[in-house]
């Protein structure tokens, strides 16, 4: 069951920060950058060792890690294919993805 969302949080990002957030949201298959940011925020502990994403089990977390790893590997494969076809990825894109996945 979805809770009605009545509050809004707004902040500014640099162009690079926004592009990174957009790339991460696409990798996580979020419907929007806002949905991704909300989900990421809910994964943070609330000080009591809990998060607002209640019900997360160790088994589910392992599955999420495996899915993220598969996404990274698929992205790397796509970049290799593009490089073989003469289209090289942007500088640092792969390193940035690897850094964010760990």
What is the number of helices? 4
Tally of separate domains: 2
Stretches with pLDDT under 50, minimum 5 residues: none
Straight-line distance between termini:
31 Å
Mean pLDDT level: 77
Morphology: globular
Helix proportion? 55-70%
Beta-strand portion reads under 5%
**Oligomeric state of the chains?**
single chain
Order of helices and strands: HHHH
Cα gyration radius (Å): 16 Å
Q: Give the number of DSSP strands.
A: 0
* Main pleated-sheet profile: none
Class from secondary-structure proportions: mainly alpha
Structure summarized in a few sentences:
Helices cover 58% and strands 0% of the residues. With 102 residues, the protein is mainly α.
Walk me through this protein's architecture.
With 102 residues, the chain is mostly helical. It has two domains: 37 residues; 46 residues. It has four helices and no strands. The mean pLDDT is 77.
